[in-house]
Predict the structure.
Amino acid sequence: MVQESFLALREHNCFFQDLVRIKGKDFLTPVSRILIGNPGCTYKYLNTRLFTVPWPAESYDIKYCSPQIHDACKALMRLNDYLHIETVKALQGQNLFENKEIKDTPVINRKQSFAASLTEQGSVSKDQSSVCVSEDDRSLKNRTSYNLTLLNYMDPLQMLYLKQEPYFGMGSMAVSWHHDENLVDRSAVAVYSYSCEDSSVQESNEQELKGRDPAVWHVGLKVAWDIETPGLAVPLHQGDIYLMLDDLNVTHQHCVLAGLSPRFSSTHRVADSSRGTLEYILGQCELALQNLQTDSDSMALSLKSLEAAVVKQVEEIHNEVEFEWLRQFWFQGKRYLKCTDWWLKPMAKLEEFWRKLEIMTSLVLSEVRKEQQIEEQRNETISCFLLLLKERQKLRKEWTARCQSDAAESLPEDQRPECHPFWTDDDECNMPLPYDLEEVIAYLQNLVQWIE
């Protein structure tokens, strides 16, 4: 069923190359991806926030673009539940082994057990569910309750160029050495691998090979930031599962080494949801809007407080909504509409909040122009306000440039980045402030100099 889900998602063109940002430059990933998981969850890597295509969770009304996409998301949700159970069993077995065998051994010998953390499905005993757990049950659940899966697809024969593994001569890489980002501390990662193997791609069993078989996909593992200790390349075959347990993702880096056949993978993660869910960002908006009040008679808007700490908090939330949510979402074009329109209403709600935050920024500007305030408080407010407006201006320029880059223009039209929100002085959108904040910033800088 999972394999059918991969194929169905590919047939519906639901896999996309991500336009990621590394050291100030944009790159298209060689691997195509789609994020599926709990409604309202996101996952951020390489400065790119992906938004989940929600799997059919209870109490959520999710409309999919086709029954096949619904069935695929449901199958991946079931796989997620299965992998959670198997991960708990594996951690329980690891804890039992460590308690019995290496409790009193020197730390230096524990390196020998690192390979056991890369646990293949076949090595997990069926009777481990009854093992007494030595660690806190809540901690175990937090570290194994996968809330999303990042699906990957690549056909190596369609790639013009693949980077070579630079340290151990392992051959072509689909994904370079890395740690998985944005995860709960010490949480596990579970990977289901499916290579579309056929008779045209055979393993090289008939001859002795130096190093790994280039026809077969592998996962590479090495000690983090260490190129002296030899790396490990583990072959991946159709339907293989492997787990990265405990702190393996911290102490080690991994890569994906390309074979010759197309390959799908479903990588299940416990994404850090402290700042990456719809519930979180809507809560932040509500918090910021507590400083906005409406006169019951005139209906005029005003701010409850101009204290520097309050202004700073509101403007930071303003930047977070604009650059971590709205621009991240629209930078990915209309890709999510290939699967579902679920995110459109939440993003419209966030934009509505963001427009109110723009009004609040304009109200701060109006107030600091007045001279009735206590001078020390006014200076402090202007200083923190100015810093956040400078950051907003810088980021708007950066996102505008990214949307117009050659890499962005090379994408299909429905995946091409949209610079949104965007407006000009001629637009009839009733925005209280200009998109370009240069003049506002110059005014505030002059005001600071005059006050000093």
